Input
Amino acid sequence: MTHTAENTAGDEVPRNAPPPPADDAEDDRWCMAVRLLGRVERELDETLSRGHGLPLSEYRALCALSRAAAETPASALRMGELADRIGLKDSSVTRLVARLEGRGLAERATAPGDRRAVAARITPLGRQWYADTTPTYRAALGSALEASLSNVYLADLAAWVRTGRSAVAGFDPVPNPSPAEERPPAPGQSPTGEEERP
Output
């Protein structure tokens, strides 16, 4: 027996049917989103590298390690978990941690519950670097998003990042999640959703 459900047009479709392919308009909107992300990421990376000698990827790693330590002092993140948190491949994270370790900002540690697995932990110097660079990062992010609000193609996405609401009047595409549906905290936020204060 095939179970059916109604789509937005009211037509019955098989419940297990694959989603429809994206159309030209959806592809265009996705490209706009990627364009905004790429622009902001470049500006953040250039600002951090120029002002602190710290690439964006390394800042994000320090952010993730700092938050993990805030949750459980002296805790360490497995390489795979760190890779998931900052959006890099495991092999890239291994090299990144090696660079942080060479600068005294992080150190390798035994993964909790598995002595064979390698993990990373932030050092006191790493905490200080994270604290020193966060105001620069936040200022650059705010500036980049504010500039994008004047671009007709990027304004809606930039407004959503800034406020959590769409720039389209009266339209909120992402309602506040229930506790069961709560999303993981964004970089720079605590698990409660508040801004992390170094």
In short: DSSP finds six helices and five strands in the chain.
